[in-house]
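>> Question from a student workshop board

For tomorrow's exercise we were told to take the sequence and the ligand below, predict the bound structure, and bring the output to class. My setup keeps failing. Could a helper post the expected result so I can at least see what it should look like? The ligand is zinc ion.
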Amino acid sequence: MQRIRPGLYLLQAAAPANCYIIEGPRGWSLFDTGHPLAAPALLGEIESNGFPLAELDAIIISHGHADHAGGARALLERRRVRVLAHADDIPAIEGRPALRRGLGPRLRRIWRRLRYPYRPLAEVLPLEQGRTLRFLPLWQVLATPGHTRGSISLFQPAEKVVLCGDALDNRAGRLSVPGSRRCHDAAAARESARQLAMLDLEVLGCGHGPVVRASAGLKIQSALPPLD
Ligand SMILES: [Zn+2]
Ligand SMILES: [Zn+2]
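>> Workshop helper replied:
Here is what the output should look like for this input. Compare the format with yours to find the bug.
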């Protein structure tokens, strides 16, 4: 586990997917849960770093892919808490995905299913753009669609931090906006990245790759693809 800012920690047991602990006034919440096979290791990392599951308050899912939502079932079996995600990705998280046609998406689905034996969740609650979370009052929900229709980010203005799921990727030593192969809607993903680049930001926690710890706004601007 790495401390990123006061009350914000990166969990690494579900690598290559990042998960984050965010402390609130009454307990702590989890932003993303990794892939299902990593759930026991993730639970071990959480508890060995002094975060008792009895104080887990909520699980927020950045988007409906199995490498981000997949660990939630195992956590919920240990402690029942509310799970929140954007309404557009709730069907996928609950096991009713809107399927894209074509051979490429179909093969990717088969590959994903084999790699991440996902167990769907029941009763995921919807999050909306601009909502402040009662249990995390310093954080705001930003709709950042494109990678999936219902991708969200969490923004903490006082500490200038964004956690963005797969709206941006920081693997292979390079911050990038996901292109059409990794997107439901690549144009929307570019627009979401532009919106994030306009925030006053220092720290960026992506769903994959190391945390950007300084000048995150400038780095997102440099990663933006040129306008068509
Ligand atoms: Zn994803
Ligand atoms: Zn991912």
